[in-house]
Design brief:
12 strands, mainly beta, TerD family protein, 2 helices, Stress/Tellurium_Resist, about 190 residues, 6-stranded antiparallel sheet, Lipoxygenase-1, TerD
Length: about 190
């Protein structure tokens, strides 16, 4: 059963039987908002190139990143499935996904922060039906969903993070608007959430 998360809410990444999840997928989906007016008829629909990234953090410092130009973390525990340049139909499917093998994440990595940015610079006012969701990759069951709401003039968002707690992992919905076209631009916005 999936949980709809609110900004700041956390969930444990344990199965209902108390065992830890071993592999999760952070999915990102979106679609371009319909354009209005005379120019929309001339220029057609419009594609939005959102990019999902995962920044691996150890002791408050970035140690690796997975994004469309670096699809697999250096240790192989985090993998991006590929770049989507246009977004989808907004029907709930993932347009970009990042797979995390929690059991293989090196012990020194204590957080993985997921971001989304508009590589082409469109704002979230031009995006609709945007969401991120966490899926148990073993069973395909959706565990949590966070709707990237609000539109606005920002070009990026710090979506969520998974972080170690005791012997397991938790997910926290962050939902912090930011400005930037790449994950590097977002590092100052990530820092307060570590």
């Amino acid at each position: 059963m999936s949980i709809n998360l609110n900004k700041g809410q956390q969930i444990s990444l344990s199965k209902s039987d108390g065992t830890a999840l071993t592999s999760v997928r952070m999915g990102l989906g979106w679609k371009a908002a319909p354009r209005k007016g005379f120019l929309a008829k001339l220029t057609g629909g419009g594609d939005i190139d959102l990019d999902a990234s995962a920044v691996l953090i150890a002791g408050g410092q970035p140690t690796d990143v997975v994004f469309f130009q670096h699809l697999v973390s250096d240790d192989g525990s985090v993998r991006h499935t590929g770049d989507n340049l246009t977004g989808g139909a907004g029907a709930g499917g993932d347009d970009e996904s990042i797979l995390v093998d929690l059991a293989r994440v090196p012990a020194h990595v204590d957080q993985i922060v997921f971001t989304v940015n508009s590589f082409t610079g469109q704002t979230f006012a031009e995006v609709q039906n945007a969401f991120c969701r966490l899926v148990d990759e073993t069973t395909g069951a959706e565990l949590a969903r966070y709707t990237l709401t609000g539109g606005g003039s920002h070009t990026a968002q710090i979506m969520a993070k998974v972080h170690r707690t005791g012997g397991g992992w938790q997910m926290k919905a962050i939902g912090e608007p930011a400005t930037g076209r790449t994950f590097q631009d977002l590092l100052p916005a990530i820092a307060p959430h570590l």
